[in-house]
Specification:
This protein has three helices and three strands; from the N terminus they run H-E-H-H-E-E. The protein is α+β, with helices and mostly antiparallel strands and 72 residues long. Helix 2 crosses helix 3.
Length: 72
């Protein structure tokens, strides 16, 4: 999940620098090729360690920004 998140922010910031992105369980599952439980648990792990931080919502889905702990 960590590597997938780095790739996601790198791709998004190529055209929208510094903007938050959604990272839902279903997206994480498909983007990173992991199961639903791994996607949920991994996202919680990233949040608990403040590797990603909440940055609002878009259409009811959570938006995140990377913290300094995520080197892009």
């Amino acid at each position: 999940l960590y590597d997938g998140l780095k790739l996601l922010f790198g791709a998004k910031w190529a055209y929208e620098p510094g903007q938050p992105t959604t990272f839902t369980r279903s997206f994480a599952r498909d983007w990173c090729g992991v199961g639903e439980k791994t996607a949920w648990g991994g996202t919680q792990w990233l949040l608990q360690r403040q590797i990603i931080v909440p940055a609002g919502k878009h259409k009811g889905r959570p938006l995140y920004l990377p913290s300094a702990a995520l080197t892009i």
